[in-house]
UniProtKB/TrEMBL annotation:
Cell compartment(s), UniProt: Cell membrane
Record's bilayer topology term: Peripheral membrane protein
Domain named ABC transporter: residues: 15-243
Protein name listed in UniProt: ABC transporter ATP-binding protein
PROSITE patterns noted in UniProt: ABC_TRANSPORTER_1, ABC_TRANSPORTER_2
InterPro entries for the chain: AAA+_ATPase, ABC_transporter-like_ATP-bd, ABC_transporter-like_CS, ABC_transporter_ATP-binding, P-loop_NTPase
């Protein structure tokens, strides 16, 4: 049997998740998660520490089995077509997977070789340029700043042009300048038509990057919309004569509650 042509899947969302449930022993982490991510968009899954963001990403990247529900990535079911899902994605974790002994360029060339691509050197040079690493490319990665490493990691995830990229807390632990650099890199991904699902605990990150934002709280998506739609959940505050729009932080704290440590029942 042959793989159906991609045109069959074009109309479908890049990521479709319905009724996803997952428990670890008695800990119910996901209690029915529904998400759709349009092709070529940036979708932020926002949630406090321990909300279950990484669990969702692991299920979508076939590293973990859900207890119930369905998940499709690039039109492929994660349970019945795991190999096709893995071909369709790349996953960049919180901890950069680059090798510090090698130079940035060598890291990229290595991955391109592993993927049996033609002209790994040209691929590496193109990515170094796109992620503002051209000058640093011949230096060992041990000498890179945190932001440079993370950018290199994202560049590596693009090799082979996967249509869907998962970024699990891409800026965790970075300083403000490095975070801005990584944001530029993520925007660069989406410009090229790649679908990006990113998880974050940072409201400003979701605000900066995402076309749509979903808040994962106590195992469910409690809101899902554009930044403007989320803002409309709260009335604007009247400050003297100037109307102040609610920030995403106002929306988040109102919905999730100021104490962000969740209770498990
Ligand atoms: N393999 C596991 N075994 C037991 N508990 C787990 C496992 N993985 C995650 N958890 C728990 O599930 C909850 C959600 O974890 P996670 O998805 O990593 O949250 P997030 O990425 O939003 O911080 C946490 O309470 C975490 O401790
Ligand atoms: Mg996590």
């Amino acid at each position: 049997m042959s793989i159906p042509p991609t045109t069959d899947r074009v109309g479908q969302p890049a990521i479709h998740v319905q009724g996803l449930e997952k428990s670890f022993k008695h800990l119910k982490v996901l209690r029915g998660v529904d998400i759709d991510v349009a092709r070529g968009s940036i979708f932020a899954l926002l949630g406090s520490n321990g909300a279950g963001k990484t669990t969702v990403v692991k299920i979508l990247s076939t590293l973990l089995r859900a207890d119930a529900g369905t998940a499709r990535v690039n039109g492929f079911d994660v349970v019945t077509r795991p190999a096709d899902v893995r071909e369709s994605i790349s996953l960049t974790g919180q901890f950069a997977a680059v090798d510090g002994i090698l130079t940035g360029r060598e890291n990229l060339v290595l991955v391109a070789r592993l993927r049996h691509l033609k002209d790994p050197g040209a691929i590496a040079d193109d990515l170094l340029r796109r992620f503002s690493l051209a000058e640093a490319g011949t230096r060992r990665v041990v000498t890179y700043s945190g932001g440079m490493r993370r950018r290199l990691d994202i560049a590596m995830s693009l090799i082979g042009r996967p249509p869907v990229i998962f970024l699990d807390e891409p800026t965790a632990g970075l300083d403000p300048q490095a975070r801005i650099e990584v944001w530029q890199a993520v925007k660069e991904l989406a410009k090229g038509g790649t679908t990006v699902l990113l998880t974050t605990q940072y409201l400003d990150e979701a605000e900066q990057l995402a076309d749509r934002i979903a808040i994962l709280h106590e195992g469910r998506i409690i809101v899902n919309g554009t930044l403007d739609e989320l803002r409309q959940l709260l009335p604007p505050a009247e400050v003297e004569y100037v109307e102040k729009q609610p920030t995403l932080e106002d929306v988040f704290l109102t919905l999730v509650g100021a104490g962000t440590e969740k209770e498990q029942r």
